[in-house]
Amino acid sequence: MGWNRKVLRVNLTAGTCTPEPLNMAWANDYLGSRGLASKYLVEEIDPMVDPLSPENKMIMSTGPLTGTMASTGGRYTVVTKGALTNAIACSNSGGYFGAEMKFAGWDMIIFEGKSPKPVYLYLENDKPELRDAAHLWGKTCWQTEETIKASHQDPLIRVSSIGAAGENAVLFACIVNDLHRAAGRSGVGAVMGSKNLKAVAIRGTKGVSGIKDFPAFLAAANAGKKVLADNAVTGQGLPKYGTQVLMNVINEMGALPTRNHRDVQFEEAGKISAEAMHERRPTDGRTHLVTNNACFGCTIACGRISRIDETHFSVKNSPKYWGAHGGLEYEAAWALGAANGVGDLEALQYANLLCNEHGMDPISFGATVGAAMELYDLGILSKEQIGVDAQFGSAEALCKLVEMTAHGEGFGVELGQGSARMCAKYGRPDLSMSVKSQEFPAYDSRGIQGMGLTYATSNRGACHLRSYTVASEVLGIPVKTDPLTTDGKPELVKAFQDATSVFDAAGICIFTSFAWTLADVQPQIQAACEGDWSMEKLNEVGERIWNMERQFNLAAGFTARDDDLPPRLKTEPAKTGPAKGLVNGIDKMKPEYYKIRGWNTEGVPEKATLDRLGL
Amino acid sequence: MRVTVKLYATLSDYLPPGSKNNRVEVEVVECAAVDAVLRPFSLPPKLTHLVLVNGVFIPPEERASTCLNDGDVLAVWPPIAGG
After folding, report:
1. Which residues of chain A neighbour B62 with C-beta distances below 8 Å?
2. Distance CA A265, CA A255 (A)
3. Where are the beta strands (DSSP E) in A67-156?
4. What is the tens place of the pLDDT at every residue in B12-45?
5. Is residue B16 part of a domain?
């Protein structure tokens, strides 16, 4: 049946943990994880709620394929109203935590209210227990995981926790599991911190049972794994070079946002690329990259494990960082590097380590530093205000600012509010490179036009993981399209958005879509889950999820005006590269997109659309 | 005329020994085609996936006829992805 049919409801105000049956009618309409948890959220909270109030809820959820033998079936999501965005948030993480939740016998955990004191949830199979976390409050994510495992004398417990960032309401705080995987975006960690919930620790020993047709599922899962293994991207490219292999590609195409999107090409991109991570350092003769790494059940293994240069100024007096740690991935390397003009790979790794250690989204953090550096460059912020000489390209400033933000010191408090609030405070809201207050990831939409529409219409604010048209526009997956034109992009974005919703709802990694289409996923869902899961139905589920999220955001006060890009991307043409002279064509694409979606000119779904989707 | 050839990811193994920063400058005849410039590198056809000239994608069917100009940058990747 794919699902465990069981939800744990944790009322933090009352200190109660109550099991309840999963709403199977909703599961039939929304599948699981992102879709199903979002359905619970929209039914249970007021869309206008303050994200950091007790009235907001936070749901940790698995999909029907989470914990199974489906490749990459280790994903879980955190669904809430985002602290950074005030929009619906769904942040997705790999590692082993999601599978452990399934092994303990649960599909999702709903957290509501606010604990009067710091607590953590310890969940051993059927036994939930809220425990005092006074001794954990103030600890890093790494210390929290270690302490919980030691206190329960069980190294196999899986932990998701917040660090100082989540405790201190850094608005882009994330939730870290398995040391270096994270539900990273939209400030889900700040919501968790606002509830005085330090960690969730799970030990599950039940495995996954109840797959509807196990022989058929095994055959479908194995067929899917063969497709991944035989594909040059998922079988060879990603395991060897990881996501960071994109650094040189995107730079060459003139779509690498540089110095807060002033430029679209970074002269030091090669120094922070995947290829650079394979080169031996002159200082110690070692490569930065130690090995690749896989999440639960993953047969791709794109993760990076790296070792920082012990002689680097950032860590030479801090031996605790000298071991092998997670990173760098492409998005973090870009946000901490090109976005700030910093070409020092070791400095980026240090900043990334601190983001993992203290629970911060490196994309939003790095991009916010980029905005601060521009304010500094323009003379709007001074060295005295920031506390460091924050010139573009300063690795020293980056390393100092990550420490200040993580610990809530000085100007770090303002950085912790994200670029939209910081830039507004200093009278230049136009310098925040964000949509719905969430910072852009690593693709400049002047050089990859479809990504402009992707960002503008993403339900969780600017994000590449809601519709990764880079696959088509740059990489030719599934077909090559021209990145410099808006033609056909509204259709492309809608197709990517709906399909991605299904991958997320199933509990698998979106990276499988570099080799799989929905037709590869469908047999796995069909064999695992009760009911009819035809291609037609899955397409409808994806569209339903998207429109449900949209409806929530409209009820939360967002309008068509929020489906827009910062003026820089619409009025300042790219200076170099193939997109030289181009701005993003969002104003042309958006009306077409609304029409294709079945929405009116104000971006509101028409009644016929809602009726068709059962919304 | 001279053009710059950049080979990335696993294709960097096909650069001449001692090449740095994934690039090498080569002397080619006037209006040399993309395919002709790449031929001496003996790249496996299946790995010659993403071919850019000055950042612009050249489809496989146009690589035999697309002429390079002096100073052009020809960059090639195997099938890769990220995100």
Report:
1. none
2. 7
3. 76-81, 88-93, 108-112, 119-124, 127-132
4. 999 999 899 999 999 999 999 999 999 999 999 9
5. yes
Please name the residue of chain B whose CA is at the shortest distance from the CA of residue A256: B55
Nearest CA in chain A to B23: A270
For the record, the structure tokens of A129 come out as 């227990």
What does the pLDDT average to over A510-519? Answer: 97
Q: How far is B51 from chain A (nearest CA, A)?
A: 10
Asked if B52 lies within 8 A of A253 by C-beta distance, the reply is yes
Between chain A and chain B, how many beta carbons pairs sit less than 8 Å apart?
A: 91
pLDDT at residue B82, as a whole number: 87
For A578-588, the pLDDT digits (tens) are 999 999 999 99
Cross-chain residue pair B80–A330, CB shorter than 8 Å: no
The shortest CB-CB distance from A232 to any of B22, B78, B82 is to: B78
How much is the ipTM here?
0.97
B44 touches chain A (CB under 8 A): no
Chain A: residue nearest B77 by CA? A249
Domains in chain B, number: 1
What domain range includes position B38?
Answer: 2-77
Nearest residue of chain B to residue A333 (CA atoms): B83
Sign for the pseudo-dihedral over CA of A389, A392, A395, A397: positive
3-state secondary structure A520-568: HHHHHHHHHCCCCCCHHHHHHHHHHHHHHHHHHHHHCCCCHHHCCCCHH
In angstroms, what is the C-alpha Rg of chain B?
12
Closest chain B residue by Cα to residue A239: B80
CA–CA distance, A180 with A538 (Å, rounded to integer)? 32
Chain A contact residues (CB < 8 Å to B): 231-234, 236-238, 240-246, 248-249, 252-254, 270, 274-275, 330-331, 464-465, 468, 470-471, 474-477, 480, 483, 510-511, 514, 577-578
* Amino acid code (one letter) for A343: G
In a domain, B83, yes or no: no
Pair A563, A603: CB distance under 8 Å: yes
Q: Do the domain assignments include residue B33?
A: yes
- Is A240 close to B9, i.e. CB distance below 8 A? yes
The C-alpha R_g of chain A, in whole angstroms, comes to: 22
Asked, for residue B82, whether it belongs to a domain, the answer is no
Q: Is B52 helix (H, G, I), strand (E, B) or coil?
A: strand
Please name which of A188, A211, A198 lies closest in space to residue A84, comparing C-alpha atoms: A188
Mean pLDDT, residues A127-153 taken together: 98
Q: Stretch A92-115: mean pLDDT, rounded?
A: 98
Q: Which residues of B touch A237 (CB under 8 A)?
A: 9-10, 78-81
Q: What's the residue count for chain A?
A: 615
Would you state the pLDDT for residue A1?
60
* CATH number of residue B8's parent domain: 3.10.20.30
